[in-house]
Amino acid sequence: MVLSEIPKIKHANSNNFFLLCGPCAIEGEDMALRIAEKVIAITDTLKIPYVFKGSFKKANRSRIDSFTGIGDEKALKILRKVSETFEVPTVTDIHEASDAAMAAEYVDVLQIPAFLVRQTDLVVAAANTGKVVNLKKGQFMSPEAMKHAVQKVKDSGSNKAWITDRGTMFGYQDMIVDFRGIPTMKQYAPVVLDVTHSLQQPNQSVGVTGGRPDMIETIARAGVVNNVDGLFIETHFDPANAKSDGANMLHLDNLESLLTNLTLIRKTVNKL
User: Fold this and answer.
1) 104-122 confidence digits (pLDDT tens)
2) What are the pLDDT digits (tens) for 209-226?
3) What are the extents of the domains in the chain?
4) What does the record give under GO molecular function (predicted)?
5) Which residue of 28, 84, 137, 235 has the fewest C-beta atoms within 10 A of its own C-beta?
């Protein structure tokens, strides 16, 4: 497990799942700090290793008028401020090979989006930074196929890779989580379950992705029961007005009760 190698990570030896959590996109400094402060208070109480998540830009949007970011450097500086203010590691996704070195100056984990996880140049560029690389499983890929993405990281001289399952396409407008894939992918790298993106309903006619946030706890519980190493949850204090992925996000007010329940489940699973 590469968790202990991440700077500023807390509770790495708590035997709990770790958590990647935050807004979909960095919309501004105040919102990022507000969300981070709340999540950190919860995770410190529950002894959950925590990495703050926020996209510095959104490159894969359905429509040209969709929100893509507040500016690369501005957003990355906000991620750095979150890290320095709260002594917490951060993760952001990258979309081009040239993003890797730039983002690595500001964050601790580089995430490869699911649509791009087969892009060799992008994966290699991320691995070459020496940062942990979070490889999101393509919605179109089998669990077994993810061993090749992990191998690209290893062939680049790094063992710092995670796999994140974010669901598999089930028709044109729905996703499904196949929990059989978790033990398969755990053979290759630590496995994270992206709870909120697994509940997306893509390809809506209006060009804005839908979601099923009412199912967040159901999917998260199943992931913990099936021994995922980590959870990925996007959260916001005002999902209805979030600039990206609001339809499948967890309201920040509901995070504490969810994580409390999941931690109790994890303790039970650990005794088995």
Assistant:
1) 999 999 999 999 999 999 9
2) 777 889 999 999 999 999
3) 3-271
4) 3-deoxy-8-phosphooctulonate synthase activity
5) 84
Name the pTM for this structure.
0.94
DSSP 13: T
The pLDDT tens digits for 26-72 are 999 999 999 999 999 999 999 999 999 999 998 877 778 788 889 99
- What six digits make up the tokens of 245? 């992925």
Answer positive or negative: Cα dihedral of 211, 217, 219, 220: positive
Torsion of Cα atoms, 171 then 203 then 181 then 261, to 10°: -120
- Measure the CA angle with vertex 5, ends 76 and 252; round to 5°: 50
Tokens 């959950």 found at: 48
Residue type, 170: F
**In this structure, which topology does domain 3-271 adopt according to CATH?**
TIM Barrel (3.20.20)
Please give the single-letter amino acid code of residue 54. G
